[in-house]
UniProtKB/TrEMBL annotation:
This is Fibronectin type-III domain-containing protein. It holds the Pfam family Por_Secre_tail. InterPro entries: FN3_dom, FN3_sf, GEVED, Ig-like_fold, Secre_tail. It comes from the Bacteria. Keywords: Signal. SUPFAM superfamilies: Fibronectin type III.
Amino acid sequence: MRNFLLVGFLMAGFLSSAQTYCTPAFASGCSGGDVIDSFAIPGAGFDHPDTGCSTDAYGDYTSMTINLSAGLSYDFSVKHGYSDQNVRVWIDFNNDGTFDDAAPELVASASSTLVGANNITSGLITIPSTVTPGTYRMRVGDRFSSDPIPCNTDGYGEAHDYTVVIGAVPTCFAPSALTVSAVTANSAQVGWTAPSSAPGSGYEYYYSTSSTYPAASVVVSGTSSGLTANLPSLAAATTYHVWVRSVCSTSNKSAWSQMATFMTSCISVGVPYALDFESITPPDMPSCTSVVNDGSGNLWETGDLDAQGFTGNVLQYSYDYADNADTWFFTNGINLTAGVTYRIKYKYANAEGTVYVEKLKVAYGTSATGAGMTNTLADHSNIVSSTATSAFANFTPTTTGVYYFGFQAYSDANMNQLYVDDINIDVAPACSEPNALVVSNITAGGATVSWTAATPVPANGYDIYYSTTNTAPTATSTPNFTGITAATYTIPSLAPSTAYYVWVRSACSATSKSVWSDHATFTTLCSSVNLPYTIDFENVTVPDLPGCTVNVNAGTGNDWETMDPPSDSQGFTTNVLKYQYNSSNSGNAWFFTQGLNLTAGVQYTISYKYGNNSSTYVEKLKVAYGTSPDASAMTGSIADYPSINDEMAHTESITFTVPTTGVYFFGFNAYSDPDQYNLYIDDISINNANLATAETAVAKNNIQVYPNPFTDVLNISDIKNVKNVSVTDVTGRLVKTIANPESVIHLRDLMQGVYLITLEMKDGSKQTIKAIKK
Ligand SMILES: [Ca+2]
Ligand SMILES: [Ca+2]
Ligand SMILES: [Ca+2]
Ligand SMILES: [Ca+2]
C-alpha cells in the first residue's frame, strides 16, 4: 500500500511539472520537409521512424521513454525531407520546466548533410556524469537554416518531446577512438583507446556487414586483452562495421563503443568479368572499379538511362563547357593467361538529339592509370549515333598477370553525353557471333530472319533459337535449327498474333560455338478472317490501333493513331483514326486492316468515312488493297482523294472484285504535304455487295448536293426519301426550312457564305452537307 501511494505521488509531481513547459512553434511549419521524420539513438536501442510533420509542428511523444546512462555519449541521427537543417537536443536536468539553451541542458547540436538521397543530421548526445539518475524531459528541435531554440516561434521546422530515464554512471566504460588499419582483401586490424579506468578483464569486439548497433547479448566475434584485435577471414571488397566493449568483470560489461567502418580491398578476379552497372546507385561506381581524371574536363560517373538500347544504369561522361574530356574508367584487376585469346565486349552511344561528336578509347594494361594503358583495343573517334552500338575486340596477352581495362572519354569540350554499358570480358570464342539481325516477310505463320555473316564464316553454319519469352539462350540451350549455311532463314510454323524473340550463333566447329547474338523481336500477323469486316475504332485505348491492324510508316512523317471523337469536323461523332500533320515532312503512313479472305470474281463493297478539320489545310488520302500489309504490295487501287479540305465527313462506298482468291489487306495511305492539319477516317466496312443490307443504308445516306459552290439553286441527287431540308449558317443559326422539298432548292435570297444543308430523311436519319454560296 505504501508503495502505491509513493508511485502515485511521484506521477502527480512529474505531470504537474510537465505542464509548465513552453510549446515550441514554427511559424512556417514543417510540411515542406523541414521535419524530424525519423529520430534514432542506436546505442540506446531507440528508433522512432517515419513520424512525418506533426500538427502545429510539435509532436508530444513524452509517452515514449529513452533509457540513457549518465557519463556516456550516444550517436543519434535525424532524417529530414529538406536540406540545410539544424538539430538541437535539450534535457531539463533540473526539472524546472525550462530548457537552458546551453550546456549542460543543451546535450547535442548538429547540422544535416546529404547522405545518398537523404538529408540526415548525425551527432552525439553527451550525458554529463554529474547528472542525478532519474526521469527527465528531452526536447529535440529542428529548424531550417538557423538553430532552433527551446521555446522556438519562427521559421520552418519541428520539435519532438520525449521522456528520458537517466541511469547511474556505469562502473565500466566503453573504449573510444576506434581505428582500423592494415586493411587487406581479407583481414584488418582494429585498435582503440582504453577508457579512463581500464577494465579488469580486457575487451570484446563484434563486427558485421550490418551497421545495426549490436545488442548487449550478441555473440561476440572475439576478445582481446590489449588495445588491438585482428579481424581475419573477411570477404574481399566488402564493407564491415566493428564495435568494442570493455569487460570490467564477468558480470559487468560496458556498452558497445561507437562504430568504426571500413571496406576490405579488392582482389583480382578471373573471367568471365561483367559490368552492367545495375548493382550501384548512380552516380556511384561499382566497387573495385576506379575513375581517374588525367585532364581538366569532367569525370566518368554513372546514370540511370534505360533508353536508346541500354538497360538501366550506364557509365556516362557529361560534357564540360570549357575543357576537353580526358577521364579513364578502370575495371577491377583481371587475371589473364599468356597466349589465351580473350574478347572484350561493350556497348556505347551518343546522346539523343543534336549530334555532338563523342570520342572513346578502350585499352588495357597492368596498372589502373592512363600511363598503364599500353595496349589500345579500340578507338571510336567519331561517335554520332544515339543507339547503343555493340562492339568487341579480341586480344592475346603475352604475359600471365593481372590486367586492368580502361575506357577513356576524350571528347572535345562542350559536346554532350557519352554512354558505355554491358562491359564483358571472357575467353574469345573460336569464331564470332553473327550480328545485326533483321526480320522480314512476317506472316501469320512465319518470318524470315537475316543477319550479317560472322567473319570468318563459321565452318558448321549457324544455329537459330527462338522463343515467345525474352530470355536469352545459354551455351547449353538446344537450338531450334542448326547447320544453316546462308545468312538468312525463314522460320516456319509460328502461331499467329504472337510476339517472338530470336537469336543466332555461329557453329565454329562441331564442338565450338560462338555466343548467341543480340536478339531480334517480331510479332506474327493475325490470321485472316472472313467477311463481314467492320472497324469503328471504338474499342481501343487511344492512341492505340485496334488489334490485328497495323500502322506502317513508309516515309518520314507521322503515324496513324486513334483519337477521341473530334469536335472540329462535321459528321465525326465517335472515335476515329487520325493522321496528324508533321511540321516538316510529308505524310506516307499506311493503316492496314487485318487480312481478309476474298474470292475471285465476287462483288465486294468497301465503305468508310473520311474528312479533315480545316478549310485552309489540305489532306491527301489513297485507299488500296494488296496481298500483304506492306506499302509496295498495295497494287489494287480503290480511291484517291488529293484535296480534302471541307471540315466534314464524306461517306464513301465502292464496289470492287479481286482477281485471285486469297488473303487481302486494305490500306489507307495518308500522303498529305508537310504542315497541314488532321485527316480522319472512321467506320471502315468491307462486305459482300450482294448480301449486305448495311450498304443500302450507306447508299441511302450518300446523297449528293450540287453544284457546290452554288449561286441560286442547289440540286439534291435523290429526293425521294428526304422529308425536310434545313439550312443553317456557320454560327449555327437556322436560316431556312423546306418541308417536302423538290429536288431543286431555290436559295437566291441567301447571303454569300458557307452554309450547312441538313437533309432529314423519312426514317429520321440526318445527313449534313456543307455548301458555299457564291
Ligand atoms: Ca515529426
Ligand atoms: Ca532546466
Ligand atoms: Ca546497365
Ligand atoms: Ca468510330
